[in-house]
Design brief:
Blueprint (H helix, E strand, L loop, with lengths): L1 H16 L9 H23 L6 H25 L3 H32 L1
């Protein structure tokens, strides 16, 4: 889990210092892919913190599936003239907050057990 946190911090630092600009027609796709990636990463961290069984195959397939599904729904919405990328973003964001809530409760339980 320490490596995951170091990787996230390094990625944020590299991303903030990069000068690459994303073409405007790909912004929706980039947004949903990033939120899908974050959902998968926080799901993996939640599995580690809450003592669930972490499985690398499940993580990688979920990551790929999230990205493909997010891009597919965004593409479908674009073809229909609808902003379906907003629905994708809302769902992934809800899942991220759910995972963070579970992680918070698990960490509080761990800290309470250490106090006793």
């Amino acid at each position: 889990m320490v490596w995951a946190i170091i990787g996230i911090i390094a990625g944020v630092i590299i991303g903030l210092s990069a000068t690459y600009t994303i073409p405007i027609e790909y912004v929706k796709y980039t947004a949903v892919v990033l939120v899908g990636l974050l959902d998968s990463i926080f799901g993996a961290i939640k599995a580690e913190v809450s003592r669930e069984e972490y499985n690398q195959t499940i993580f990688l397939t979920g990551l790929i599936f999230n990205i493909i599904l997010a891009i597919g729904i965004t593409l479908l919405g674009e073809r229909l003239g609808l902003d379906l990328y907003l629905a994708v973003t809302v769902v992934f964001t809800f899942r991220i907050f759910s995972n963070l809530g579970i992680m918070r409760r698990a960490l509080i339980d761990i800290l309470n057990k250490k106090k006793k």
